Predict the structure.
Amino acid sequence: MIVGIIPARYASTRFPGKPLIDIQGKSMIQRVYEQAVKCTFLKKVVVATDDERIAQHVRMFGGEVVMTAMHHPSGTDRCWDALQQLGGEYKYVINIQGDEPFIETAQIDELAIALQDGNTELATQMIPVSSHDMLFDKGEVKIVLNDKNEALYFSRNVIPFIKGVEEQYWHLHHTYYRHVGMYAYRKDILEKITKLPVSALEKAESLEQLRWLENGFRIKCVPTKYESHCIDTSEDVDKVLQLMGLK
């Protein structure tokens, strides 16, 4: 069984109260929750938060909420806290980003389908890079894969370097993928990775998943066709609405 957990905290540095912002008549957290509960492969969906304002709001629209500790450094840690409280026979957790109000239900199901073998330790999603600008955008994390579509490395820089080709044409000579940041964890693996100390590569790139790779865990990367539209600042709201053709 798979449970979907939506980590949501109020005290965002760049955008305090972000989960509760109104987006065309509904809060961001409500929009994410309503998309998630439509998924075919999720047995349950809950919001994991440390803030009573968010919890009350989720209950108000009929959602299920779990109160977690305030000290968690990442959504991964908050997912483990929530899962322990939920109990049940869940084998996998999908960490659904609470700042993507127009996430596609089918995208979540794509990741869930990849877990059906029961052997997958960790999974995430990727999408092909289609332009030079996207490839060299250090805000976009690129993935290096093995022949099983498991991650060898994640980087904000461009890997691999293509010798003898001008940089503007690299994306035409190699299939690059960028990371789409939704994660799935097998329950036993989730427990283990939350106990790992911060690693050197994680510090260097500011990417949590490098800690898992450094410690020998395997991350399956699942192709998706769905773009990820994340809201990090108040200015992003209008940008995302325009991208979705809603403004």
User: Anything to note?
Assistant: The chain has two domains: 1-103, 124-227. The mean pLDDT is 93. The longest helix spans residues 75-86. Residues 1-103 form a domain with the Spore Coat Polysaccharide Biosynthesis Protein SpsA; Chain A fold (CATH 3.90.550.10).
